[in-house]
Write a structure and sequence with these properties.
This protein has 177 residues and is of the alpha/beta class. The chain has two domains: 143 residues, Roll (Outer membrane lipoprotein wza fold like), CATH 3.10.560.10; 32 residues.
Length: 177
């Protein structure tokens, strides 16, 4: 009974993927990683956990890891054929410290990890809007350290200015008759 149900679910996934997305090669998608909207309807969500796309109906969902400076980092199940920009939107987009000039996508390709970098500062270029995420991809948005560095250098400048002004005052006091 269980094997028959498993075969029916696998067949339904393949048919759904073919009807809505064209032919799917078995080497690109592991059927065990996919989820149908009906399978995730009643699953609760918690912070930093697993998120399922609530906005897309009747599409097969695939796992994509979205990490770093986004509003909802974690494992996201998003529709197959989702582009990078839309995938980041499912994660709530970049937060206030996101370094959007260096968004990285890593994909395991056999024994190698392939890496793509995108500049999304002004909404991204054509390559970011056309880049299609695949099951198992990891999207990483780095933290912009500008504010931290600015505070450090501002404090350092204040210390140096205090030392220099103190030395100048002492020099003037010594030069007084």
């Amino acid at each position: 009974m269980r094997t028959t149900l498993s075969n029916q679910i696998s067949s339904a996934i393949l048919v759904t993927a073919f009807l809505f997305h064209g032919p799917v090669r078995a080497t690109e998608i592991d059927l065990q990683d996919l989820a149908l909207p009906s399978e995730v309807r009643d699953i609760g969500k918690s912070s930093g956990a697993v998120f399922y796309s609530p906005t897309t109906k009747n599409k097969t969902l695939m796992p994509v890891h979205i990490w770093g400076e986004v509003n909802r980092p974690g494992l996201h199940y998003i529709p197959v054929d989702t582009k990078l920009i839309k995938g980041l939107s499912f994660a709530g987009g970049g937060n206030g410290t996101a370094k959007l000039s260096e968004v990285v996508v890593n994909r395991l390709d056999g024994n190698k990890v392939r890496r793509w970098e995108f500049n999304l500062v002004e909404g991204g270029d054509n390559s970011a809007h056309e880049y299609e995420l695949k099951p198992g991809d990891t999207v990483f948005v780095e933290k912009d350290r500008f504010q931290e560095n600015r505070a450090y250098y501002t404090g350092l400048f204040g210390v140096v200015l205090t030392i220099v002004s103190t030395l100048l005052v002492l020099k003037r006091l010594e030069d007084r008759p």
